[in-house]
Queue: 2 jobs
Job 1
Amino acid sequence: MLEHDVLIVGAGLAGMRAAVAAHERGANVAVISKVHPVRSHSNAAQGGINAALTDRGDDWTDHAFDTVKGSDYLADQDAIEVMCSEAGDDIISLEHMGVIFNRDEKGHLGTRAFGGQQKARTFFVADFTGQAILHVLYEQLMESKVKVYEEWFVLSLIIEDGECCGVTAIEMATGRVYVIRAKTVIMCTGGVGRLFEPSTNGLIVTGDGMALAYRAGAPLMDMEMIQYHPTTLKGSGVLITEGARGEGAYLLNKSGDRFMEKYAPNMMELASRDVVSRAGQTEINEGRGIDGCVLLDCRHLGEKLIKERLTEILSIGRDFAGIDIIKEPIPIRPGMHYIMGGIKSDIDGKTSIPGLYATGECACVSVHGGNRLGANSLLDTVVFGRRAGHHAAEVSKQMEYKKFDVTSQIKKAEMDLQKLLDRDNVGERWANVRTDLGVEIDKHFGVFRTESGMQSLKESLTGFKARYDNCSVQDKGRIFNTDLIFTLELGYMLDCAEAITLSGIERKESRGAHSRIDYPQRDDDNWLKHVLVTKTAEGPLLTHLPVTITSWEPQERKY
Amino acid sequence: MQVNISIKRHNPSAPDNNTYWEDFDLSMHDTASVLDALIKIREDVDGSLSVRCSCRSAICGSCAMRVNGHAKLACNTKLSDVIDADGRVTVEPAGVMPVIKDLVVDQTLFWDKVKQISPWLQPDGPEPEGEYIAPNSAMMDLAGVMNCIMCGACVSDCTVLEIDKDFIGPAALAKAYRFVNDPRDDQTKSRLIELNEKTGIWDCTRCFECVEVCPKGVAPMERIMSLRESAMEQGLDQTVGARHADAFTDSVAHSGWLNELLLPLKTFGMFNLGAMMGLAPIGLRALLRGKMPSIFHRSVPNVHRIRRIVKKIEENE
Ligand SMILES: Cc1cc2nc3c(=O)[nH]c(=O)nc-3n(C[C@H](O)[C@H](O)[C@H](O)COP(=O)(O)OP(=O)(O)OC[C@H]3O[C@@H](n4cnc5c(N)ncnc54)[C@H](O)[C@@H]3O)c2cc1C
Ligand code: SF4
Ligand code: SF4
Ligand code: FES
């Protein structure tokens, strides 16, 4: 019997930080991940990670305020206080583990400017910060000898008497199904980018954890808050990091004007993401774009700076657009990037289901509210990953393993898989359904939204589900059957789509990323609250929770 | 753009004939990558094609495989750069590591080698209150190695690993460089002592293959050369490897150029036939791949004879 005190689902930054923390506290820890840990999508974070270090004349309360304002006052301020006050220590411990942050002339950690913030407080490693941290956390994992179930795909959470006590999973290399028993399970499965077409997210980012928790009865919160990043590459949707604007790059329209002058005269290109995305989309919609795009111009930054600090963008431009960013501006458009919402959890990662935790992008604590600041997500993963790891380890010391019928769990999972494999080959391909769904949701859940658009999406979801139920898996084997895995992932994405759509229709105002043409104003009287969706036997149930306000009363947001 | 992509497939579930080549004719966008073509196949043509991939932007390290015989990341290799005049290109799984299915290889060997070099920071004494103070230049030098995405392209095509699976290999040694040169790490000497052992830094034949195939500019071979220098500086010269370097010096001092054929003799001693035989295929293979041109420019007009010897050895392998 495979069993662990703390079982962590996901090996991105949140998952590995949680694992290191739980191991520190003496728990028997294991990590399970559908890809090798260093392939996790945290890799993609180029720009950096925020923290206000007091010995550098910064103040965490300033960082907290910028985050509150960035969230359009939807984030819970107690959670933001935890994140911002503990950020400094977490950056330093990453450095102690071996992360090679860029330094200043004196050899201290250096910072760069990022959007929506008054101070430069983003720590970075050239422009592969996520990768640099991810690999160091994996080094720590190797040192700790924590068990990693590599390329194991989680199929379900096991809930017994209302408590989470393990998972069922398929070992991809053999196709065998296992039960892993655990006293506590921490979901760290990342976002749901692939539900949108195009998206900056990798192909593995499919909302599995959110759907697994949703199916198990945990509420999903703020799911309508989808971040469109202002600068994604024309066509492929590859991300051009905010670090570029942090270093001083301009946004230009067709006539070569820096259009942000109109929308955010003070912060210009470095206003909050939702603000910049709306500005860019408005320029495009009103005919001042070029071929559905606006331009990001790095030319004036000079070859030296670009080669030293923006190497990744230099190669992305070259490899994916055939453009030399030293000499030409890059055509970009707002594109789906991040989900602020997720499994409702608290500052220790606890969800509404005992034994089940969630942190990282799959969770909603909530520290990002209606709009996440750049470089606050990596911070979210390490602060709350650590806290969840510690909490789960301590709690599991006082717990026994719960007994449940392991054989019947395995049998049921096996049967479900076999049913999928046994479908004859006449059905539609998962890929078709996913692409159509992605295009549809991008159309109605993009930068601007309307009641009629969201309603028509809701209706079409029924059709998509029917098409899904008719999909056939062409690979009938068991060994490394990715066709099967992708089909299962599409099922997860459809659950996320349901929660996103219902939450979007529910919130009748414009706040953060949720910009409604039919309700253009923020409405604090009625909507200063979270929207939650819970799966019940009678169908999805919508409820609300108040926003926690500590020091910062809602104000009008200007940049 | 019309392409014909020839894929070396492996179906572990089939009873026999389970490794075979299969051709696919596709119509692709001019800027499409090899990975785009593979994705198109598995999405629209044959869902049973297995390939690892996620980021599509050369950052997750999932998609290393051989394209036209050389290791590459499928996602940052443009089809237009690799197809021949008839639009043909071949794709096979990465080398050195065993195949699980189609283009998916078992990377256990890769990670075992990384684990072998104790790849975690080992500083001295208690941690400082704040960060370690270190010059930015040192950190940015390490960034060149931290850039490694652990894709295994170098391991796939390393000429030594191909025949000697004990060699620590390019990726793990590049990772070792990162710790040896990290000003915060306190185990420099003990790390070098281990790297100086058999299967370590001296086993590399400097064939350049890893430098050529690395998609991230890590240049493992150059890191290995730098580690050799560090080892010599630490006075670690009583090993096979360091004797090899001494022989190198002798050779250059004697003739003004490098006589690589004599090097192994001096390194292992005249009578260590086993080691000599072990080395032969490496040197010869490197020769065949055009990696050792300078040695023969004057003294060996009859290259064809050497080619014949190579063929003999390969036939006997
Ligand atoms: C292009 C890009 C750039 C970004 N830049 C920045 C930045 O500069 N700064 C910043 O703060 N944030 C940035 N972000 C956001 C940030 O990278 C992510 O929000 C964060 O890394 C998410 O980390 P995570 O640990 O929650 O999830 P991930 O890193 O996505 O990890 C998810 C893990 O869950 C596992 N998993 C998922 N489903 C299953 C399953 N069914 N079974 C088993 N395992 C499973 C996966 O294998 C993976 O290991 C960026 C995001 C993108 C896409
Ligand atoms: S240079 Fe050395 S490490 Fe690199 S491929 Fe050749 S033998 Fe292997
Ligand atoms: S050194 Fe280069 S080729 Fe080798 S694993 Fe790292 S990135 Fe890949
Ligand atoms: S798909 Fe990530 S490196 Fe190629």
Note: Residues B 53-56, 58-63, 73, 75 surround FE2/S2 (inorganic) cluster (ligand 4) (CB under 6 Å).
Job 2
Amino acid sequence: MLNSRQKRELLRQMYTIRAFEEKAEQLYTLGKIHGTMHLSIGMEASAVGAIAALRPDDLILSTHRGHGHCIAKGADLKLMMAEFMGKETGYCRGRGGSMHIADVEGGNLGANGVVGGGIPIAVGVGLSLKMQKRDQIILCFFGDGAANLGPFHEALNMAAIWKLPVVYVCENNQYAMSFSVKKAFAIERISDRAAAYGMPGVTVDGNDLMAVYQAVSQAVKRARAGEGPTLIENVTYRWRGHSKSDANRYRTREEIEAWKQKCPIKRFRTQLIEEGVLTEEEADQIEQEAYATIDAAVAFAEASPEPTLETIEEGVYV
Amino acid sequence: MRELSYAEAIREALRQEMQRDERVFIIGEDVGVYGGAFGVTLGLVEEFGEERVIDTPISELGIAGAITGAALTGMRPVGEIMFMDFITLASEQLVNQAAKIRFMFGGKAKVPFVLRTPAGSGTGAAAQHSQSLENWFVHIPGLKVVMPSTPYDVKGLLLASIRDDNPIIFIEHKLLYKVKGAVPEEPYTIPLGTAEVKREGRDLTIVATSIMVKRSLEAAEQLAHEDIEVEVVDPRTLKPLDEETIIRSVMKTGRVLIVHEACKTGGYGGELAAIIAGSEAFDYLDAPIVRLAGRDIPIPYNRDLEYHAVPQVENIVEAARQLARGEV
Ligand SMILES: Cc1ncc(C[n+]2csc(CCOP(=O)(O)OP(=O)(O)O)c2C)c(N)n1
Ligand SMILES: [Mg+2]
């Protein structure tokens, strides 16, 4: 069970993710960040609740919508923001950007530009952890859309037959770009697929941080005990467009508004206040502090140097 | 003549061919209401319905299989892979199945599909959304590879490709989608395997593909002020290749610079160089054949590094100038 201090910390993480992404969006609009960007605003409980169930030395694999995963795993916001601005001081020396951010030392084995790209890698990581008798586990995030790629099926089967220490977390945010899960699946729950591989499958309210935390904790326990993988489906919703090129033609304003009423941050905050974990004022303070840390990260990133042209061919090989 | 963007020209070709031939349909990720990641198919689902403009799950191998199977049994599908990088996921059905079916079956079947996909860097999307993988497919007997560089060409080549009875990898460029040019309203075809001299010149030949044709033409414009007259040849289809037009141009100028965006090592430029060196143009060469291509690195995210990862106009100017002045 989580104590009060831990719960306050999780609220802080959710606010930090929200603040980071709002700022990143703003900087993108100003042209200070280029390329593309996939925001997870509205999905914070999925990232924070899942990672809260891990030990600090456990590993994660993330997705193109991975800012939340990265922050919840303990990334340094300065190095993250510097990466977004393509600076030499960034996590990937400005080579990766938002969609490829990795914090290998911190146990984040990388976001991924290829949908589902991390799902088979998780098999290899799980296998390696098992072979080396390390008692860490790997938690692999992916979207609803990723569950329809062939590699998903190959990987989950392999993880299951070898009882690998993997937790698969599907962030079902109702859409893969414009394609709704209602059209993309002939089944009700993505977690039903777990049965086909012989592993437990659980669907949870992905906007309920405690529900996510509890489901993932169970799966982590199982994985660490050598009992094999679990497939967890966090049902949630992305508030923003798919990326910066999305005109939202495939969904209604009403639908988006209805989901905004289910804000995972507000929900957890209210819960904590009701439980007496903190007061309104303390919650406000946590929120304000989160926004302030982002400003410091932006200042660091803006003051950082660009990579130099002489280094352009570095780093392809060891 | 009326002007259309490259993207509009593709859309017009798709619309006209779907009106003309009921067997033609579109299939890919987010090709319906979303209109594709670059808006190329916008409006087509409204006109032709969800039965002929089919949104798929994120299943690239499935898309490749669907067009292969449908083509094998009487349809003429036009598939779309959202970014060329993800064609790697589709490659089994393309390389082992679609490309080989006709030959393996002793000529008793055909697989007439087009698989459209955008390649290229310059959008800040980094290493997994920026590749130019054309040569992977040039290497496979049974596939044709088309790489148009202008709105006019893209319409005529797409119509010719849809009417062709072979599986075709049709490679577009993201940075070309908004480029405008004259495009006739009526349907027309450009035969596959016909190169075009995009600009005439006496001093050297540039053979360039896709967006590098545009950059080479800009470079040629600048070099004209230095009294260097560059001839720019666009193969337009990499396979089949119109060797004759290229060889004739090299025999005329005696110098050749090959420019493409894909990484240099293993790129199409090596093939072109070998073809030229092995042809009657060899005796006419006054200088070594020069290749200017993408660096052998994944495309970096940083704006400046990304810019310098592939040939730009100034690099082409520089390379062409050296070659023309006999400094190579
Ligand atoms: C293999 C592959 N196909 C297509 C894409 C283009 N693309 C990027 S994100 C995306 C939708 C992903 O949906 P989902 O897995 O549900 O994640 P979400 O974006 O909803 O978080 C698509 C189609 C890609 N990056 N990789
Ligand atoms: Mg999704």
Note: The radius of gyration of chain B is 19 Å.
